Amino acid sequence: MNDTPKRVALFGSTGSIGTSALDVLRHHRDRFTLVAIAARSRFELLVEQAREFRPPVAIITNPSSEQAVLEAQESLQADGIVTEFMIGEQALVDVAREAGYDIMLGAITGAAGLPANMEVVKRGKRLALANKESLVMTGPLLTRLARKSGAELLPVDSEHSAVWQCLRGERTSEVKRIILTASGGPFRQTPLDRLAHVTRDEALRHPTWTTMGKKITVDSATMMNKALEVIEARWLFDIEPERLDVVIHPQSIVHSMVEFRDGSVIAQLGPNDMRLPVQFALTYPERLETPAPTLELNQFASLTFETLEDRRFPAVRLGFQVARAGGTAGAVFNAANEIAVEAFLKGEIGYLDIVRTVEAVLGQHSVQGADTLDAVLDADRWAREQARKKIHR
Ligand code: NDP
Ligand code: MG
């Protein structure tokens, strides 16, 4: 099956997932052609990527100056590289709606990734989804639109990729539980009374996934990331929260598991390298060889599993609550968290205030239906405002 190369659009190309994806494309040059890239402000890297992969379109949503963008485009042209540079958030939506691509890898962080992802789904295209926030915000809407248009939502998040792989050829009705694994992050063993004082730098030091972007690294420390993943799994696999579970697995080798009603548990294992799930989403249903190092199980004395402590990681309980509530709860949960993480990274609030802020905003929200993008974006705006008020009070 080595025919026409697949046309890939990659939004969030300068980030951790984006650069992993480019490494996969580099390794399988004859299989893919890159048709669009997008970033927010790391412009030099974006230009370098344009020079290497020669996509027809490159989007920068927040450039330092329009002049610099024009100059870069001209300098590439002088070298025979025709990449059109587009500026602003609207370009993401326009390109998602109109460009010729076979698969979009949505790897922008946070709510900013949503509008373009919606367009991909409306068009009935294949969406490789790293941006879990999209599903958390609009799970019911996005999955309904996908069913209607025939769009495919393929997970990139390692846990969901694992579950997806465990479910291949299985019947969802025979699933007893989906068990998501979590590394436990940097504070898995920190004395509880020290958590109030842990610093930004400590939170940014993830024990097993070392190259992630800042936002998701903080989310992993609070386990807000796992909470988001519970909600993501709820919509992606159309499974009730009662059949979802989280277990701590500090080595991050078992990426997740599915238990079936006959008692069999199928797990997916692999090195903790995002190039694996990224590649599988891009090549599905094929499996190609990997540019990443492969798993050496004898380097692990043991693979261990622990129960999650609610007192240490209350975020996960909130995640289940939101997964059960549905509607606008997901958008509120996500937005309050984005604001709280930003404030924590700026040193405006302490580590424990992140989850406290989210819980307080959630507590004030009366959940509405989230059947339209407008309803979701309204809830998102409201939650951001409430979170900011709490932080700056
Ligand atoms: P990074 O912070 O490393 O990268 C984010 C990317 O999105 C950058 O390319 C950034 O551009 C771009 N971006 C951010 N905001 C905008 C915007 N408004 N318009 C255009 N581009 C924008 O994050 P990660 O790669 O770590 O994460 C990306 C997504 O993947 C997140 O949703 C995360 O939850 C998810 N994910 C990540 C995993 C990981 O291992 N890293 C694992 C599982 C999921 P710029 O560089 O210019 O700022
Ligand atoms: Mg994950």
Description of the molecule:
By secondary structure, the chain is of the alpha/beta class. The protein has three domains: 6-155, Rossmann fold; 160-272 and 291-311, no CATH class; 327-393, RNA polymerase sigma factor, region 2, helix turn helix motif (Rna Polymerase Sigma Factor, Chain: A), CATH 1.10.1740.10. It has helices at residues 16-27, 43-53, 66-78, 89-98, 114-122, 132-149, 158-167, 200-203, 214-222, 224-236, 275-283, 314-325, 329-345, 351-364, 373-392, and strands at residues 6-11, 32-39, 57-60, 84-87, 103-106, 126-129, 152-155, 175-182, 244-248, 254-260, 265-269. Strands 4-3-2-1-5-6-7 form a seven-stranded parallel sheet, with helices on both faces. The mean pLDDT is 96. The protein binds NADPH dihydro-nicotinamide-adenine-dinucleotide phosphate and magnesium ion. The site of NADPH dihydro-nicotinamide-adenine-dinucleotide phosphate has 27 residues, from helix 1, strand 2 and helix 6.
Features:
393 residues; alpha/beta; seven-stranded parallel β-sheet; four-stranded mixed β-sheet; 11 strands; binds NADPH dihydro-nicotinamide-adenine-dinucleotide phosphate; binds magnesium ion
Topology:
Blueprint: E1 6-11, H1 16-27, E2 32-39, H2 43-53, E3 57-60, H3 66-78, E4 84-87, H4 89-98, E5 103-106, H5 114-122, E6 126-129, H6 132-149, E7 152-155, H7 158-167, E8 175-182, H8 200-203, H9 214-222, H10 224-236, E9 244-248, E10 254-260, E11 265-269, H11 275-283, H12 314-325, H13 329-345, H14 351-364, H15 373-392
Parallel strand pairs: 1-2, 1-5, 2-3, 3-4, 5-6, 6-7, 8-9
Antiparallel strand pairs: 8-10, 10-11
The structure holds NADPH dihydro-nicotinamide-adenine-dinucleotide phosphate (NDP) and magnesium ion.
